[in-house]
Design a protein that fits this description.
Blueprint: E1 2-6, H1 13-25, E2 30-33, H2 50-60, E3 65-71, H3 78-92, E4 96-100, H4 119-136, E5 141-145, E6 150-155, E7 168-171, H5 175-184, E8 187-190, H6 202-222, E9 231-235, H7 249-260, E10 266-270, H8 282-296
Parallel strand pairs: 1-2, 1-10, 2-3, 3-4, 4-7, 7-8, 8-9, 9-10
Antiparallel strand pairs: 5-6
Helix pairs in contact: 1-2, 2-3, 3-4, 4-5, 5-6, 7-8
């Protein structure tokens, strides 16, 4: 099992540089950031853009993989995003993963002045968004006329450093999203079942993740793909255990080990943020980074 982290884009770069370098020094496999215009309790706090942040992080690190968790169609267009991703992949020397999902009805959903999309429209848009991104990042010139997104002789030359393109990590729990993960993903992302966050139990959450992985496997088998080809990524902090796994090394290893038994191959933890849901003791965070992978066989 691999251990990765999320660094929220809340630091002016004089401090942000230190955070990304520290993640590399601690040995994390990947450091992700959230691709939002604003997010939850941070709406009226400092919040920077994901792509410029990752670009700066690419120049401040050498081995750490970088990525988004997750980018959505809420305020992105495939043509402009593909150009940014190709450039970021080049600057980083091929260390970028695109986490992508349908988005929610949060602040991003109306920031461009639009009405929030229905769940069905979000799913429809994600399907077209991912398919067009795949073409834009693998073909030198793309023309497409879709329901939601179009491209006219859009060029991305020379293409990604990673071939045939940078990897997609598709966040999904429903049938259509799992189908996208099976068809286009190099990884699949879950936060568990959000319906269990408030009143569910850890046992119910494990059963939900197990079911998601089984449905992902079925989606892969439907298109003749081996489900073992996909990494299974759990973004922590949104299961009924909440912050408990980050309270000690033993608590984290127990939590991560139970999910590893289900088939999860990568656990993502949030870097400490004071006065937030991610207010982890920095010393415990560092101990988890240093000690947990060996105990988990990573």
């Amino acid at each position: 099992m691999r251990l990765s982290t999320v660094i929220l884009p809340i630091h002016r770069w004089s401090e942000g540089r230190k955070a990304w370098r520290h993640a590399e020094e601690l040995g994390f496999h990947t450091a992700y950031t959230y691709d939002h215009l604003s997010w939850r309790s941070f709406r009226d706090r400092t919040w920077f853009g994901a792509v410029p942040t990752l670009t700066a992080a690419a120049t401040a690190t050498t081995t750490l993989r970088l990525g988004t968790l997750v980018t959505s169609p809420n305020f992105r267009h495939p043509v402009t995003l593909a150009k940014d991703l190709m450039t970021l992949d080049d600057i980083s020397g091929g260390r970028v993963t695109l986490g992508v999902g349908a988005g929610t009805t949060g602040f991003d959903a109306t920031a461009l002045g639009q009405e929030p999309w229905s769940p069905r429209e979000r799913a429809d848009r994600l399907a077209e968004f991912v398919a067009l991104l795949d073409r834009l990042l693998t073909e030198p010139a793309v023309t497409h006329r879709g329901t939601y997104y179009s491209a006219g002789e859009a060029r991305n030359i020379p293409g990604c450093v990673q071939r045939p393109r940078l990897p997609f990590a598709v966040a999904a729990t429903g049938p259509r999203g799992l189908g996208l993960a099976a068809g286009y993903g190099q990884a699949w992302v879950t936060t568990g079942d959000p319906r269990l966050f408030e009143t569910g139990t850890p046992e119910q959450s494990l059963a939900a993740v197990r079911g998601q992985i089984e449905r992902l496997g079925a989606a892969c088998e439907n298109i003749g793909r081996n489900p073992d080809e996909l990494d299974k990524v759990l973004l922590t902090g949104f299961t009924p255990e909440r912050a408990l796994p980050m309270s000690s090394v033993d608590a984290f290893v127990d939590f991560a080990g139970r999910h590893a038994e289900l088939g999860v191959t990568e656990i993502v933890v949030h870097a400490p943020v004071p006065d937030s849901d991610f207010d982890t003791d920095p010393a415990v965070f560092e101990r988890i980074a240093a000690e947990a992978p060996a105990q988990l066989g990573g």
